[in-house]
Structure formats: C-alpha cells, structure tokens
Amino acid sequence: MEIPTITVESRKAAGSRAAARLRKDGKLPAILYGHERDPATLALNYKEVEQLIFGGVHVVNLTMAGKSQACQFKDAQWDHLGKHLIHVDMLRVDLNERVKVTVHLDYRGTPAGAAEGGVLHHAMNEIEIECVVSGIPEAIRLDVSGMKLDDVLHIKDVPLPEGITHVMDADAVVASLKLPVEAPEVGAEAAEGETAEPEVIAKGKEKTEESEG
Prior knowledge:
Layout: E1 5-7, E2 9-10, H1 16-24, E3 27-34, E4 37-45, H2 46-54, E5 59-64, E6 67-78, E7 85-92, E8 98-108, E9 119-122, E10 126-132, E11 139-143, E12 152-154, E13 165-166, E14 173-178, H3 186-212
C-alpha cells in the first residue's frame, strides 16, 4: 500500500475563533495523539485532506520540521449539514501494528432475486475491521449477485482478505433482499371512509326515529 505524504504545520492558538480563522485560510484544524506522547495541535491543507478522506485513505505520513510520522485518520468532524470538514483527529501508528478501522462496503453485482422483483436493502454501508496499518484496504468488496429473495447477509458472510478480521457482531445484518412493501391506495382508503360514515349516521338516525316513535 502506497502511503501518501502531507506536510503539516504546528498551531499554537486554540479555540473556536482560531479554528474558524484557519478554515477561512484553507487550513484544517487537527490534533495528533498516541504512542504515549503529548498531543500536538496541527494545521493541515483542507483540500488535500478532504480528497484523501473521500478517496478512502486511512493512513498518511505527516511531515513537519523535517520529521515524518505515520498516522491514521481516527475521526473526522463535519459541519451540521455533513458537507464540510471542520476538524480531524489523527493517531500516531507503527506500520506493523494492528488497528481497528472502519472501511466502506463496496457492493458489487445484481442480485439473482432482482429478476423476481426483489430489492436490495443496505443495512450497512461500512464495517469495522482489524488489520495491520500497512494493509488497510480502501474498501471491502461484497458480491451480492448470488442473493435470492428473502436472503440475508450477515457480518460473518462478508469475505475478508487474508490478515483482516471482523470486530463487529458476527450476526449483525449487512444486507437483505426483499419484495417491496406495497403502500395502501389512498383512493381506496378514502372510498372506505366515505361509505363508513353515512352508515353510522344512518344507524344513529334509525335509533332516533325508533325512540321518537
């Protein structure tokens, strides 16, 4: 796995105002921690990090003041619309250590049951795995072409490359193939309502007439 290298800067000012100024200048606030060393506050190139994260990159080499450190994107914070990065947490790592990481599920193929009207429902679009840092995949491919109506795939059914293991509940549902649920016709409900109401009124009127008689 080729690990990209990005150059970062140290940032001394903290707080929301300082972070807002950084973002205005095209920089992304970040914190680096791990390996029993003091946390370091950093400023990264916003667009560079955004492209890496959207590209499925999990590990980068951070270069600062002539020194390089392998790091994992541990957590990313987004704005309230979920469109723009506002902060990232980064973890110092050794390329040979095992880490837990969340990766994208890449669904491949058309389910066999789709020919019978089945619709594939994605219960998960990403899963958590454990592997060595240097072997983190950009995504896990999942072939669903063999799925028939009412088939359900669980975590234990997701094939993983050698050296990678699941860390989630083995019986957790990943995807299922079901016939679409038909919604009741609004017109039919309205028609039933229209016939029911006069019937109730008629009965009430009948009772009233009997009591008057």
